[in-house]
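Write out this protein's structure.
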Amino acid sequence: MNEAQLRRPAALWLAVTTLFGLAGTVVGLLPVVLTWGLFRDGQVGLGTALGTMIPYVMLMVCPLVAWWLLLRRRYLSSIIVATPPILMWAISIIAQKLMA
């Protein structure tokens, strides 16, 4: 597939991942804010704070960067960048099933 043929699939994939990104923003905002507050108070180390905040921030940022790449006509790159919210959701579902 060339870049021109990837335009529609990329737009559809980004629409889906944007919904996951919005859900990630709603779900992830509270842990990020709480962890940042604990880090500023000195109750949590930098490594722990980053380890907690990076996955949630990634859920929020990946769709935005992917849309920017789509607008720049980098369709394959936009699909790749938009994938982490879906992957994190799938991994969490699999982990939940394995733990139950």
